[in-house]
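Table 4 source record.
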Amino acid sequence: MKISRMLAGLCAVAMLGAAGCSAQSPDFTPRLQTITIAPAAAQTLAAGETQQFSASETCSTPPGSAASSQPCVKSVSWAVDNALVGSVNGGGLFKGLSTGTVVLTASADGITSNPVTITVTRPKLVSVSIVDGVTQGAAKTTLTLGSSASYLVLGTYTDSAKARQVDTDSTIAWSSDKTAVADPNPKNKATTSLTPAATGTMNLSVLVTPVAGAGSAQTAQLPITVTNNVPTNLAPAVKLNPPTVVAPGAGTPTIATQSQATAVAVFADGSKQDVANDGNTVTWSSAPTTIATINATTGLATSVAKGQAIITATPKPGKFSGSQTPATATLTVTDPVCPVPLLATGGATASDATSGICLLCSAANDSNVTDGDFNNFATLSVPVALLTGSISLTVKAGSTVTPVAGQQAGFVIGRPTGSLLLAEVLSQVQLSTSLNGTATSDTTSNQTPLRLDLLGTEVTGAQAGLVSMPVTKPFDSITLTFGGGVASALSSVQVFQACAAVKPPQ
């Protein structure tokens, strides 16, 4: 029995020896001793670039046991000392944000790793592209002779996927593989332009070389085709200036009855251009001619009667490479605006007078207002005037005018091309009526507003308008008073016709 117990003890000792005597106490817990970041050497990254770091740890073991490389913590916490310069995620991926220096560490259970210094430099150039120099959209790849196009080089950098202007200290070089077709100018700026010299194809290239440390040289290329710029067709709509005119009649000057038509050519590159009215490209027509006629060469339309007329521009043979479809527009003709003019043939007379201090005020050709030639006019001028100075033109009818309900009376006036618009006269013109030399209560100087209707603008070298007011009292004279104004005000006005009754355009 004693022998059996001794053998069992020897076996137990032998088994313990075979196990290296490394039996672990059930109460032992490994402790974190060190954390080491790799790579451990100082790093240099450009803004926007990333670097993956890893952390290894050493942990305590029971006395007499071999060192263990098994982790004793679930994870480490990564940190940087300057979040403006760089950032790091939970997996140790560092990203440079802006220029500067930052220190990276990892920690767990109160243990901090070795510090790694990271220097973040300016972003590096990754690629370049060529865009439209004006819109920064897609660059033009088809040009026509006689045209030009602007191009801009943009760069993509490590800090953003969005292209932007290349760094100003970069070297830029534009070039063409066929300078006879088109050669960029200037060649060393971010923006260049091409003006084709011949038809054909060419490649526009740009080379951007950043300064040392800001990336490597990058190139971009854009294929371009140059064609002849020929008109392909007419734009569908004709332009009319103005689109509405007045029917001819008593007191209606020609400038109010005419409209200038202009056709628009569309070219191969999509551009548009007004067609010259010289008879070489289109032929003009109007339908019906009982409403308006038009000069087949010049495109000047003239009203005939109230209504609407279709103005048509028909391409001449061989002038357009594509569609030969005519272009059209609708001209509207309204009623005559001065159905009851005051004419010399009916006994009307015209005279002028000044009031207040009106230095150098003058009136010229008063009788033109009553001569029946509705393209003639009188001119009232106030070159130098105090605010109280004015000049007036009075037209006396051959007989008394008794207004009907809703009647308006006034004048057809005008301004030369290049002058201020007729709308400016509202503060300088007054209308009034009188009977047997005594003023009636009908005047715009009281509570009655002056009405202005534009009849046509800058068609034949002038612009015309109708100024009028309601009349309720019998009258035999109507007066237009033109007063001085502020420095920017009108200095003269044309008077075409005096109207005992008017019909403003609708």
